[in-house]
Amino acid sequence: MTEGIEKIVPPAGSAYVVMRIAKICQQLxxxxxVMFGAIVLGFVIFIAIFAPYLDTMDPGAIDLxxxxxxxxxxxxxxxxxGTVQExxxxxxxxxxxxDTYSRVIYGAQVSLAVGFLVAxxxxxxxxxxxxxxxxxRWLDAIVLRLMDGLMAIPGILLAIxxxxxxxxxLLTLILAIAIPEIPRVVRLVRSIVLSIRDEPYVEAAVSVxxxxxxxxxxxxxxxxxxxxxxxxxxxxxxAILVEAVLSFLGVGISPETPxxxxxxAEGRLLFRIYPHNILFPGIFxxxxxxxxxxxxxxxxxxxxxxxRKRL
Amino acid sequence: xxxESKIQPILExxxxxxxxxxxxxxxxxxxxxxxxxxxxEILCLVGESGSGKSxxxxxxxxLLPKDQLTPSSGTIDLMGENLLEVxxxxxxxxxxxxxxxxxxxxxxxxxxxxxxGDQINEVLVTHxxxxxxxxxxxxxxxxxxxxxxxxxxxxxxYPHQLSGGQRQRIMIAMALVLDPVLxxxxxxxxxxxxxxxxxxxxLIKEIQHNHETAVLFITHDFGVVAEIADRVVVMQAGRVIExxxxxxxxxxxxxxxxxxxxxxxxxxxxxxxxxxxxxxxVLATKNLCKTYVRRGLFQKxxxxxxxxxxxxxxxRGATLGIVGESGSGKSTVARCIARLIDxxxxxxxxxxxxxxxxxxxxxRALRSRVQIIFQDPYRSLxxxxxxxxxxxxxxxxxGMSKKEAYNRACLLMPLVRIDPDVLNRFPHxxSGGQRQRIxxxxxxxxxxxxxxxxxxVSALDVSVQSQVLELLDDVRRRLNLAVLFITHDxxxxxxxxxxxxxxxxxxxxxxxxxxxxxxxxxxxYTRALFAAAPGRGFDFANVSIST
Lengths: 311, 547
Known about the structure:
heterodimer; A: MetI-like fold; two-stranded antiparallel ribbon; 10 helices; 2 strands; elongated; disordered C terminus; B: alpha/beta; Rossmann fold; 3 domains
């Protein structure tokens, strides 16, 4: 029988947290799909930020004399002072003579902005609704029926309706894509809250007088963060795709804005003769989506091994 | 061992070592263990959690998780065949026909999508060439031997339609249908209520006698050992500490560890403590009722009376025990008193203030006065917060500064015998007993008038259990607390309670001083409950050690 005070050897809390974070980072760098996803995505982010410095021209500049050029065609301009400026259309030009290379590079900006902002927005709204619905019993039924209703409408249809009701700015587009994603986040958060709200440690917190917001924040939220990050990457990927689809259908952002979907929509008519207008933005779109999904898969396996079978 | 050598043992394990994966806290799950089971005997394998008793059973059945636990040396002989060397096909033939196993939790061990009859039938299909009518007759016959009634309807029911005791009987029937020579029972009664446990133990003993089966019975409960065992093997940390005939080991254990284990089992005799008759009443309930109403849109409304008209009183410095089987409503009462759930009707007087129906806001001011300690120490602390943060959470809620609360927690830790330096560690760095003491510290930090211990020691090993009980008692005495002690374990109740309430199906059937209730139970349910307690005639606390 131990009468005295017991000594315990393992490391103290703060040291333990540092150790744990270091271990997670180490696991992440060892995970090939995380590394591949991060590198490709990092590259896309890089070209989106530094688009003006990557030897691009104004993506909206129309040059009707140089319409429908194949990739690699050289273009000479004689400037007023007599010097000759040489310009190569690396990815050809479209039906209005715009440089496809510049448009694809600038297009990354819109795609990534839409992806990240939609993910942030739907996660934030879904998290709040899910936490409240999961913890406050009587609200649960009401919120869930609302979400079921929202889920019954095809996401793209809802987005098209919203964009055609209000004029198609970047903001309305983001809202239109984010709203159909919210029910999925709510369902995820709610299911985690339901599985944890009856844990004895939550009840213990109630019995020492912790208020509801603190219980949600302190005892429930930390369990949700990891699956939410994973969910975020999937939403980001699907948002980029939906934006491209909407632009391709001609209901996205106005056609003069360079987005990958807009460029492809533009190239659709002459696809058989000039496939480059669909090929290059298509490659970028596919690579970005692949990278994001692989990043998501890798993060899920590392951060939350139990989720492996759930999604 | 000279006289035993004449009989050929059914099962003989020699120098068996099973390795653990590399990053574990010890190298071997079991190390160099040698045990044998003779025909027609019940060998009890006893030990605390982590002692390797289940690993031993699983390695006999060849059910160890592959890649994680591998037998590295030794032999397991089942009637002359080394089970570690036979082919997978032969092992499959042996399982069920020669040796079979029953598990702790019959609900998860049975397939929920098949009827019980079909599951027993499946064993016969796999191992015999009987036709359907013969198999059906055999299934009904074996169910009859399990002392079940209404056999064909039981054979056609699904596991969830049966009670826990019936399910365990189905498991035993399935294990014995092919008349194996060896039955391995892995804590088969741990998940059952005492009265059911008693019936199942009697059944196993009877069946073992009729079928002349050798039984390897795994348990942590010395009460069960005293009830059933012919011989005992005591294990600790993967090694065999002691083995011998049950009577000898229980009465005169050779090793200090066995003696410690046995003497940690609380005695079934109520202790006498001068009752504090005129101490003020801290908490009283009057006609407390809790009814669960299940309302479905398309279903009939169902009402379940979890607690009905409960009247209890707890005085300062005294311990009130509520005992009862699962589903008797004892936890419901505790949770109503702690106001974790809202009572349907009745009154709960905390001193003179009725807290039964007060709103959440006014309740918050009173929360600190009633604190609850839960059953499972692994889940009652938030794994993502340091234990210090968990302990001071309540104090900070009531407006104390973090620093002050932390100092208070440091002062409190010696009381629960834990070093204050470890407050910044996380819960998983502590053992079960240490965590339960941390939970006690969390409750004490609030300076409550009443502590509710809801099965607070049920998940702990006996030796740890006795430490925690002793600590709770010490704290109660020093701080003059009232304690509401909820337990299904009559021994524990006998040891700690001043007054006892026996609950059955939501009602208090007997209520009075512990000595009176234990020595002279009035209600027939109380008598049945006491009669079912395993090893009740055995005086565990006063074993001598043989030299």
